[in-house]
Design brief:
By secondary structure, the protein is α/β, with parallel strands linked by helices. 39% of the residues lie in helices and 15% in strands. The protein has eleven helices and ten strands. The chain has helices at residues 13-37, 75-82, 92-96, 106-113, 152-163, 181-191, 210-217, 226-249, 267-278, 294-307, 315-318, and strands spanning 48-50, 53-58, 68-72, 86-88, 120-125, 128-134, 144-150, 256-260, 283-286, 328-330. The chain has a five-stranded mixed β-sheet. A three-stranded mixed β-sheet has the order 1-4-10. A two-stranded antiparallel sheet has the order 2-3.
Length: 333
């Protein structure tokens, strides 16, 4: 139901209105369950750091030429139901200051991965693929971060459509397929050169979704096996990431890429990553110490800075005119 809201052709304003509260209600129930299971009370928690669910992101403007973003999940309901102060809505202040409102995680990456001796890229393979480039010995002003395009978004959409599964466990299904050149070239054509666009830049599932793949399949002269479609989409995803690096990052100097996120469990995707980057002598490793919770840890870090009155965006990454304090506060009563 949430995914349907990403597409303007299928979403309705009444559905968005209701889902805004439904998501917060569900999240509040999860919080209350967590407290109960761990013998905690609301008073034991300082605050909830809450991102909500992005359903549309227009950092370059839309029909009316106004730059905007929308995350749903009503903070007031979450705070009221849990009895816990809630900090959230982190993207809009950066967007208001001329930024893209993303990536948010670059702030966390800078704190955790900055290195005096090596130039490192911290790369998250979530639904959307994003990187934070940290030149050796960098300051905040030197950080570069942007969305490269799809990571799991297209892969998961194809797996759901053809195999009725949520994801390709360990990349086993795609490993059985072959790359179809005609489909690959169509995917590149439909993408319309996003990988060439200069950062800062952001994108989302409003672009990289099942419709993206279906358009690429139109007018092919033969029927394709689902495994081949999936393998081609995985190859396109890896190629697309590599193109971003080849154009925007590697010329600046790069020693190592640290991958994290759900995409690292797809062995087909990761083997392609290693193959591509071996050609340019860049080390590839995986750091999943936060498991599925890296973005949750990032939200907690952003909320901490908000509560202390400290700017928590990186303008060189988002394109904002200046450092700003991102977030809003909702009291439980």
């Amino acid at each position: 139901k949430i995914i349907e809201l990403y597409d303007p052709e299928s979403s309705r304003v009444n559905d968005i209105c209701e889902m805004n509260f439904l998501i917060a209600k569900k999240h509040a129930e999860f919080v209350l369950q967590f407290l109960k299971e761990n013998n905690l009370n609301s008073e034991d928690v300082d605050c909830i750091a809450y991102h909500g669910q992005t359903i549309h992101h227009l950092p370059n403007g839309g029909k009316y030429g106004v730059r905007s973003t929308m995350q749903i999940g009503e903070m007031d309901l979450l705070a009221y139901m849990t009895g816990i102060m809630t900090v959230g809505d982190f993207r809009k202040k950066d967007l208001s200051a001329g930024g893209q409102g993303a990536p948010l995680v670059s702030y966390m990456d800078y704190i955790l991965y900055r290195n005096e001796e090596k130039s490192i890229s911290v790369h998250n393979l979530g639904g959307i693929s994003n990187l934070t480039y940290l030149p050796r010995g960098c300051s905040k002003e030197d950080v570069i971060a942007f969305d490269t395009g799809p990571a799991n978004a297209l892969i998961d959409a194809v797996v759901k459509h053809y195999f009725d599964m949520n994801y390709d466990e360990d990349g086993k299904i795609s490993s059985r397929g072959d790359v179809v050149k005609e489909l690959f070239y169509n995917l590149v054509k439909i993408d319309d050169g996003y990988f060439k666009k200069e950062p800062p830049k952001t994108t989302g599932k409003e672009v990289y979704n099942l419709n993206f793949v279906m358009k690429a399949l139109e007018n092919l002269k033969r029927e394709l096996k689902p495994e081949d479609i999936l393998k081609t989409v995985v190859h396109f995803t890896a190629w697309h990431i590599f193109q971003n690096y080849s154009i925007h990052i590697i010329p600046k100097g790069l020693d190592e890429i640290v991958f994290s996120g759900g995409g690292t469990k797809n062995e087909t995707l990761m083997n392609l990553m290693r193959t591509f980057f071996k050609t340019v002598n860049v080390e590839v490793r995986v750091d999943n110490r936060f498991g599925k919770f890296k973005e949750a840890v990032c939200m907690a870090m952003l909320a901490h800075e908000f509560l202390n009155g400290s700017p928590n965006n990186i303008p060189s990454a988002t394109g904002a005119r200046e450092p700003v304090i991102c977030g809003k506060l909702s009291f439980p009563r």
